[in-house]
């Protein structure tokens, strides 16, 4: 049973690859290494392939055929919201075009199991801030829109040719399951704060006047190793004929504010953090948290890691990346 992991060399993908291998599956990675490096997946075959390129369908079909792939976990995508606003057409080519390649190739060779990486970005700015999978999908930027379209595409493929598919909507992913698999991207709160601390500068907080208990935004942080486990559970669940749902939020159900996160990072790193508070950012909802019940009830998934694990493992991996010379990936715009 060989599973193809697209984007398998990336931050989340490399964790998924290890979780699948731990679960006894053969894993093959497909990645163009545009935001990652081959060193993260040394133990597995890697096909370097840009899924958005014009000749990608035939090349991917050949890979699926060669390894007799039984399933695909499709994580490969671009994920920077600001860049997606600046270059929407490129984001659609990358994320929607890349998924089109995967679906065409899968159909051509009869590979009919697919787990799709979606995002909480599909919810946009939901009223009340606490969502379930039934909350209307209303993305507010091109990145979120590419994920919403992706969910429609995989669902339509299920109707058209029987693809067994599931979309996992990740909330705020952080932490590291292994020291060598930290998040190299300085794009989210955790790594942005660690980066500023390293530069001996004050981390920036966007707004402290939100209608939340301490005035800062509240988010739902999930440990990347727990997220990786959710992929194994979701993939296995595709074998069931009586599945009721094809969409799952991957979150803990627990909201953590920016101020709470800063306090946790201060405790773990031993730094006193005095943030610089600036104006709110456009499109940042005050609260974005999931009830995260469906994944528990249907797939028996439970997060094994709390906030301390998330922060502690992120810090260790950050230090380890610095020691091994991994360059941080910064926002393109
Ligand atoms: N990190 C998060 O908090 C988060 C939250 C929600 C959803 N997601 C989604 O999870 C997935 C993985 O994200 P990540 O955080 O690991 O990002 P990442 O940038 O570390 O990983 C993406 C991987 O895909 C590869 N890739 C990108 N474009 C490609 C292309 N055209 N062809 C082949 N490979 C390509 C990159 O080289 C990289 O290895 C993405 O789909 C992202 O949208 C991430």
Question: What do these coordinates show?
Answer:
It is globular and about 55 Å long. Helix 2 (56-66) crosses helix 4 and helix 8 (258-269) packs across helix 10 (307-323). The protein has helices spanning 11-22, 56-66, 81-86, 88-109, 142-161, 189-198, 224-237, 258-269, 294-299, 307-323, and strands at residues 2-6, 26-31, 46-48, 69-74, 113-119, 130-131, 164-170, 172-174, 185-186, 204-206, 218-223, 247-250, 255-257, 276-278, 287-290, 329-330. It folds into two domains: 2-124 and 137-173 and 221-250, NAD(P)-binding Rossmann-like Domain (Rossmann fold); 174-220 and 252-330, UDP-galactose 4-epimerase, domain 1 (Alpha-Beta Complex). Strand 1 (2-6), helix 1 and strand 2 form a beta-alpha-beta unit. The strands form four sheets. It has a seven-stranded parallel β-sheet with strand order 3-2-1-4-5-7-12, sandwiched between helices. Strands 6, 8, 11, 13 and 15 form a five-stranded mixed β-sheet that branches. It has a two-stranded parallel sheet with strand order 9-16. The protein is 39% helix and 20% strand. The model has no long low-confidence stretch (mean pLDDT 97). By secondary structure, the chain is an alpha/beta fold. The protein has ten helices and 16 strands. The N and C termini lie far apart (41 Å). The structure holds nicotinamide-adenine-dinucleotide (NAD). Nicotinamide-adenine-dinucleotide (NAD) is lined by residues 7, 9-13, 31-36, 50-52, 75-79, 94, 98, 117, 119, 170, 172-173, 188. One of its GO terms (molecular function) is UDP-glucose 4-epimerase activity. Keywords: Carbohydrate metabolism, Isomerase, NAD. InterPro entries: Epimerase_deHydtase, NAD(P)-bd_dom_sf, UDP_G4E.
